[in-house]
Amino acid sequence: MKRKIVSLIAGTLILFVWNAISWMVLPFHSNTLNSIPDNAINAELLKEHLLKDGVYHYPGFPEENTPQALKEMENRIETGPRITLMVFKRGKTELFSMLSFLGSIAINFVTVLLLYSLIHLSRVQTTKTILLMSLFVALIIGFTSDLAQMNWYLFPLGYTILNMVDHLIPLLLIGILLSKYSFKVKTV
Description:
Elements: H1 2-24, H2 28-32, H3 43-49, E1 54-58, H4 67-79, E2 83-88, H5 98-121, H6 127-153, H7 157-182
Antiparallel strand pairs: 1-2
């Protein structure tokens, strides 16, 4: 039981530290995110027209589902600009709130717990199978999330690959931890 608890805590820290390094120290994410210039957005108009917090896109789907309305939307998409996802939040927000950090740690903990549980359920627990399971989990996340979003929301390939790497590296590190410390690895 002690090994399991230590593994879950260490794995959570690996995920948290990797994400901190990836986003705050390495230049890759900042090179793939672009800021909309202040003069390109009228914040007061946004506050006036976007009445609730949420995820928006532009041009949005027409209120009337008619062939003519859909054709007009297609024409607007073809001529641009197109914003596929934009989060709108009214009022004051914090960039690095304690609640966000705690939420991140909780998400990381559940991620490690799920990976640990998957490995625990497997019949063959060799270093190779544990690393392969960790790799496959990272790839499944990347395919169902990152590549799907690239396909539908037009995320750039470089941005998408970096997000996939952000799953791959820490999950492989956790796989190494679990294969060396958590499970009595069987030799085949």
